[in-house]
Design brief:
Belongs to the EIF-2B alpha/beta/delta subunits family. MtnA subfamily. Helix content is 40%, strand content 18%. By secondary structure, it is α/β, with parallel strands linked by helices. The structure holds ligand LNRAV4D5.
């Protein structure tokens, strides 16, 4: 997407130095556009762990380059195995990380060691290029939902109100995003969309990243407290909810940023369509029951007791919002059972959040046994 008129992806190879990869430091957005140089696997792991780079599809893509860096130094089988495990341990919930690393290992293992580094960079490039195409397709399929709502309601309301949680925009992927891709496309074709942006405590990806993305693209939006969504739904102010996801099970359970489950409950109670946008790399065919089987990342309680922002002079600031002795608990994701999900928006189309729905779109996967 464009930043001040310049097209960007959220990760890209340096034009001069093939062993240099750039990302935005997302912990500095929206206040400064810091471009980070990644040259080694340790820097990639640090960037993922600290959320300088975040978003399920994006951390998979960046981890793929991390593995390429590692093989540039040591292309042995032991190095491939060790560094794939090292990168996999950075964050446990987003399945795209495992998906990307397993794809890289499967692609590279059969190759002679002298060919592995270059092949790794090429495969990481391919993962990025595919992510862009897949997310564009998600946008086109999700756009149909928004078009249908506008056709149905344009005589009785002047806009389509869409609520989203966290950030599943272009900065959470290589480009386009997942949940925001249909919104960008609807806006670009003139459908008057307005987005309720959940702030998304505690890391505030909505307030900091989704608001920034939508504002940069000229999409009307309003920031709301995480707890306001249910009230807006009760008063008919939400026509549609679209969120991203970090892992979908073979029966359609959805892991996403903490607070998503509560939005789904309110949506169910108010008959608001609750759709989840995802690339197929986010489907974990090996798990069935998301609540029981998806590992939920527990992050530092300091992320709850403190907030990051800028002071009146625009200087980055971190302030405590609790008494000094208060500790925080910080589960970073929750799981929404498939029964609360209206449907899934994938690169192959829309489907029910169910085993049958997923089998319809991905018949080649359905035969795989659950682990
Ligand atoms: C397009 S997937 C984005 C997904 O990732 C976010 O998590 P985090 O910011 O912690 O990486 C959030 O769950 C989004 O829905």
């Amino acid at each position: 997407m464009k930043i001040n008129g310049t097209p960007y992806r959220s990760v890209w190879r340096d034009a001069q130095d093939p062993r240099l990869v750039h990302i935005f430091d997302q912990t500095k957005l929206p206040w400064t556009l810091d471009i980070l140089d990644l040259r080694d696997v340790e820097a990639v792991a640090h960037a993922i762990r600290t959320m300088q780079v975040r978003g399920a599809p994006l951390i998979g893509a960046v981890a793929a380059y991390g593995l390429a860096f590692a093989l540039d130094d040591d292309a042995s089988d032991a190095s491939l195995e060790k560094n794939a495990a090292f990168l996999h341990e950075t964050r446990p919930t987003a399945i795209n990380l495992r998906w990307a690393l397993e794809r890289m290992v499967a692609h590279l293992s059969p190759l002679p060691t002298h060919e592995r580094a270059e092949a790794a960079y090429r495969e990481a490039d391919a993962i990025c290029d595919e992510d862009v195409k897949v997310n564009e397709a998600i946008g086109r399929h999700g756009l149909e939902l928004i078009r249908a709502l506008w056709a149905e309601r344009r005589l009785v309301q002047d806009r389509i109100n869409i609520l989203t949680h966290c950030n599943a925009g272009w900065i959470a992927t290589v480009d386009w995003g997942t949940a925001l891709a249909p919104i960008y496309m609807a806006h670009d074709e003139g459908i008057p969309v307005h987005v309720w942006v959940d702030e998304t405590r505690p890391r505030n990806q909505g307030a900091l990243l989704t608001a920034w993305e939508l504002g940069a693209h000229g999409v009307p939006h309003t920031l709301i407290a995480d707890n306001a969504g249910g009230h807006l739904m009760q008063h008919g102010e939400v026509d549609l909810i679209i969120v991203g996801t970090d892992r979908v099970t073979r029966q359609g359970d959805v892991a996403n940023k903490i607070g998503t489950y509560l939005k789904a409950l309110a949506a169910h109670d108010n008959q608001v369509p609750f759709w989840v946008a995802l690339p197929s790399s986010t489907i974990d065919w090996r798990v069935t029951d998301g609540v029981k089987e998806i590992p939920i990342e527990e992050r530092s309680g300091d992320e709850v007791t403190h907030v990051h922002g800028v002071d009146e002079q625009g200087h980055p600031a971190r302030i405590r919002v609790t008494p000094y002795e208060t500790k925080g608990a910080n589960p970073a994701f929750d799981v929404t059972p498939a029964r609360l999900v209206t449907g899934l928006i994938t690169e192959r189309g829309l489907c029910d959040a169910s085993a049958d729905g997923l089998q319809t779109l991905f018949p080649e996967q359905a035969e795989q046994p659950a682990s």
